[in-house]
Specification:
By secondary structure, the protein is of the alpha+beta class. Helices cover about 35% and strands about 15% of the residues. The chain has four helices and four strands. Strands 1-2-3-4 form a four-stranded mixed sheet, sandwiched between helices. Helix 3 links the parallel strand 3 and strand 4. The two termini are about 25 Å apart.
Length: about 100
């Protein structure tokens, strides 16, 4: 269940690209290396938006507040978790939690 709190209009309007930039900027400030496949046609369908690495590796799927997880993305989530990986679905309203994960 996804018991979400009300979201401010500003958060609702942020694009996924702007959200990704904010996450990557904050990750870099905290010493994380990150990768985003810029040409997704060259990667398997559903591969997570970001791979972040410091003392551990994180796979993150980024969505707008209304974006939905596609079947291929859920398949990668399940494979990554089954292999012992750390996988997250992050939305702009999760920014505080994201910063905790990246601390």
């Amino acid at each position: 269940s996804d018991a979400r709190q009300p979201v401010s209009p500003i958060v609702l309007e942020i694009s996924e690209k702007a959200f990704q930039r904010a996450v990557c900027d904050e990750a870099e400030r905290r010493g994380w290396n990150w990768h985003h496949q810029t040409i997704s046609k060259r990667s398997k369908s559903g591969w997570p938006d970001l791979v972040l690495m410091r003392e551990r590796i994180i796979f993150a799927e980024l969505k707008t507040e209304t974006g939905t997880l596609e079947a291929e993305q859920a398949n990668w989530r399940d494979r990554i978790i089954a292999a012992g990986g750390e996988w997250y679905l992050w939305r702009p309203s999760d920014f505080e939690k994201i910063m905790e994960v990246l601390t």
